[in-house]
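Q: Hi! First time doing this. I have a protein sequence and I read that you can turn it into a structure. Is that right? Here it is:
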Amino acid sequence: MTEKLEDISHRFEELGQLLAQPEIVKDVKKFSQLSKEYRDLEKIVVKYKALQEARRHLQQAKEVLEKEKDAEMRELAATVAIKRSDFDTAERHLWALTQIEPDRKVHTDRLEALKRLRAGAK
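A: Yes, that's right. Below is the predicted 3D structure, encoded as structure tokens:
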């Protein structure tokens, strides 16, 4: 899907360049045809760019959380990951919590429960 969206994005950029060419502007029929295609693709490209931006923000947030030493933030991140069924991420956060606060058995218990849950789901 991403490859198809990239192709659409490239075509959109190409159309923008074509529409700026004087020979295209003079050809009313061609200009009209390309303008319509440009408008149609613009709707898709705008949403695709928003998706890319959201993915970048998500990746940045994941990187920050991977480096996070604050136990409360890790607990929150683990809870959110579990709710999203992102068990790999949840397991990493729970493991980190066992290292940050080794005296709190609750972290080890949650990690073991998650591992059992994942083993049962396979």
